[in-house]
Amino acid sequence: MTWLRSLIYNIVFYVNLVLFLVVGSPFYLTPRKWSIRALQAWATTSLWWLKVICGTTYEVRGRENIPPGAVLVASKHQSTWDTFALLPLFDDPAMILKRELIFIPLFGWFIPKFRMIPIERSAGAQGLKTMLLRAKEAAQMGRQLVIFPEGTRSAPGAPPDYKPGAAALYLHLGLPCLPLALNSGLFWPRRKFIRYPGKIVIEILPVIAPGLKRREFSETLQETIETATARLVREATG
């Protein structure tokens, strides 16, 4: 039944996405904030379908730690689930994502409308410079910049591999950093279509104040996220 429910959900997930892109195409012409609300509505319905079809719910802890206005959000990344489930948590999220997504028909066309921040990893220093410039513009608008410090999904329990992007943003923007831990990879594994029933937990941790040196920040961020993530995984697996 888990296999069948997963198959049904995956079909519903992509149908829901296509409907949003086609029926919601007028939002390409509306103010950007309206388009963000439509994107968050799509994410919320995708989470609802996951609950109804697969029995996979979620819990958010630590909402009181979200500061008002601009902030750098650094989240653990275990699953595709993270890429849309975090959207409804923030007022005006600006996701930092790989540039290749722009070339996906329909979906990619909306990325500039949402004013997300694509990064071209192969561009090296120039790609980082462009990311920092666009991130500064987003911060000045009071948006919440969301980055996955490892750059890609990692399985629960896998050794962490934090890239320098989060530290570069922290130093360049002078914003507080909001770490996020989660255990989504246990229920929506990477590179698999199976969706397991259970409760995914996102834990929003206390902010890391601006002003730390690069090394101190990087060590603090990794220790904070990894410690909390390991605890959430243990909690879910017993």
Low-confidence stretches: none
The topology string of helices and strands comes to HHEEHEHEHEHEEH
Task: Report on the biggest sheet.
Answer: 7 strands, mixed
Structural class, from secondary structure content?
Answer: alpha/beta
> What number of domains?
1
Bin the helical content. 40-55%
- State mean pLDDT (0 to 100 scale): 92
User: How many beta-strand elements?
Assistant: 7
Widest sheet, order of strands: 1-7-6-2-5-3-4
How far is it from the N-terminal to the C-terminal residue, by CA? 23 Å
Morphology: globular
Number of helices: 7
- Strand fraction equals 15-25%
C-alpha-based Rg, rounded: 17 Å
Keywords: Acyltransferase, Transferase
Organism: Taklimakanibacter albus
Protein name: 1-acyl-sn-glycerol-3-phosphate acyltransferase
Quick structural gist:
Helices cover 45% and strands 16% of the residues.
Please supply descriptive tags for the structure shown above.
238 residues, 16% strand, 7 strands, single chain, globular, alpha/beta
Secondary structure elements and pairings:
Blueprint (H helix, E strand, L loop, with lengths): L1 H22 L8 H23 L1 E6 L9 E5 L5 H5 L7 E6 L8 H8 L2 E3 L5 H16 L3 E4 L17 H9 L3 E6 L15 E7 L9 H24 L1
Parallel strand pairs: 1-7, 2-5, 2-6, 3-4, 3-5
Antiparallel strand pairs: 6-7
Helix pairs in contact: 1-2, 5-6, 6-7
